[in-house]
UniProtKB/TrEMBL annotation:
It comes from the Bacteria. Residues 1-20 are annotated as: Disordered. Its EC number is 3.1.4.1, 3.6.1.9. The keyword Manganese does not apply. InterPro entries: Alkaline_phosphatase_core_sf, Phosphodiest/P_Trfase. Keywords: Hydrolase. The lineage of its organism: Bacteria, Bacillati, Actinomycetota, Actinomycetes, Propionibacteriales. GO terms for molecular function: nucleoside triphosphate diphosphatase activity; phosphodiesterase I activity. This is Alkaline phosphodiesterase I / Nucleotide pyrophosphatase. Pfam families: Phosphodiest. Residues 9-20 have a biased composition (Low complexity).
Amino acid sequence: MPATAGVPSTTATSLTSLGTGAPPGAHGVLGYTTRIPGTASLLNALRWNKEVDPTVWQARPTAFSRLAAAGVRTTVVNKREFEGSGLTVASCRGAEFVGVDRSGERIVAVREAAGTAPSLTYSYDGDLDWTGHRYGVDSEQWQAQLSMTDLAAERLREDLPDDVRLLVVADHGMVDVGPDDRTDLDQVPELQDGLALVAGEARFRHLYCRSGAVEDVVATWQAVLGDHALVLTREEAVGRGWFGAVLPGLEQRLGEVVVACRGTHAVLSTSTFPLEGRLVGMHGSLTPVEMRIPVLIA
């Protein structure tokens, strides 16, 4: 049974939608990196910034907190390093956190948490995503990791009581971006004209413009990228419903210009985001491969 990820199709945005039951425009985690309004700084939603309170940035009660208030035991089973992180607080607060670092730990922790009724237990496994970024989704490594992930899900199903349902869902898809399908804006000076900050990620860019530069930025990026990307103003993207209904005040987190790459193209900024140049698999944009996600119930 397929479902559709939100926009952008990226981990922090999708996990916050999963944890809150709200679209990106309502919860406010609108990309991998976005500008902190009123500043010249970016919020990295995976690593977070200490000066940003996650309960303010994402102020909605999570589904976990609402269920806990209704008497449901809610548990998050995730890597120990994620306990208390900004993204965990933004997306999963209200649940008991159980730290695990190995698949065996995860299986036992989920089984124990699910032994209470009623309960909701959430667990995240990022190994398949990491492998795709490093080697690409067409690689033998990714195929092998997919098999391992599938086996882990089967083993978990075997360990769970019969009256417990297991739901497996992805946060996004991924495309492989070859070396000839990349535009590095650091190598194209005209793409830097009128920009104050570049954010998002290589498949979905937020562009924050200097005063009065939006029209020129749109025209330049459209001319340079052509059919490789859809370049819209913030208002156009919001009007198309990309982020769901955007709550008042949250629109300032979006770039004045947003760039959604088509096909398998990517727009890098190797000086600002040097890691991007080393990735093979990428995501974030609107293609079906990135947005259509499986939902498996066992």
